[in-house]
Amino acid sequence: MRIFTGMYDSVLRWSAHRRAPWILGVLSFSESSFFPIPPDVMLAPMSVARPEKAWALASLTTITSVLGGVLGYFIGVLGLEIVLPLIEEAGYLPAYELAQDWFITWGFWVVLVAGFSPIPYKVFTIAAGAMAVALLPFIIASLLGRGARFFLVAGLLAWGGPRLEPLLRPYMERIGWVTVILLIAAVAYFSL
């Protein structure tokens, strides 16, 4: 079953579209507050296809992600009662409760690490608002964490550029399935 190679080829084609940066920005904004797909799935191939624009794309992704994180923060401040059942239904409740515990213990550093890691960032943005974490430190930690992640992705793939693409393509199925398995394992871990 070859699913991921076709998706990879499609994303590479989309990355060359003139509206691709807009789509990347919307995806990045949405992922930080409510959408499940991380912007890396567009940022990475766009950086391979357009290495000369990698830094601009990483900046766009960082800024829109932080703005989406601020939306998630205000969802936590104003509408936690509404979104908590959705968090539970999506299977993120254990991660949300863990995020709350981590905020109590580590504060600023939790946002910084969550911004960089593959942990669902939206859970931390909503938890930060619900726990009334100071907004300015939240924004600074988000800029540092998200920026480090997206500039690393864009920089590595721009550095490899077009010569990296033929090396990645044969392994797309394996990379895709390993990612799915890791995601399932993470969800199972946080659900238990």
UniProtKB/TrEMBL annotation:
Where does the chain cross the membrane?
55-83, 103-121, 133-159, 171-190
Q: Which UniProt keywords apply?
A: Membrane, Transmembrane, Transmembrane helix
VTT domain segment(s): 38-156
Which InterPro entries does the entry link to?
Answer: DedA_domain, VTT_dom
Q: List, alphabetically, the GO terms of the cellular component aspect.
A: plasma membrane
Recorded hits in PANTHER family, A to Z, give: ALKALINE PHOSPHATASE LIKE PROTEIN, DEDA FAMILY PROTEIN
What name does UniProt use for this protein? DedA family protein
Task: Provide the species name.
Answer: Spiribacter salilacus
Source species taxonomy: Bacteria, Pseudomonadati, Pseudomonadota, Gammaproteobacteria, Chromatiales
